[in-house]
Amino acid sequence: MRFLRLNEVKERVGLGRTSIYKLVNENNFPKPVRVLGRNVAWIDSEIDEWMMQRIADERGDAIPNMNY
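The structure assignment produced for this chain is given below.
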């Protein structure tokens, strides 16, 4: 398990800061956790799960097919 800072999350999912926080506020994206003071980060496995679910939703798969 690893914490991801916002820049890493943006790079990984291909979305900008505003889009990420909009999705968080709509309960459509993993919520960040407070790690120290005002610093927040996302849990990498939660981001991976969110990405896999987006793929499954788009393709209509129960489990995304990782065979290209």
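Interim note for the steering committee: The chain has one domain: 3-59. The chain has a mean pLDDT of 92.
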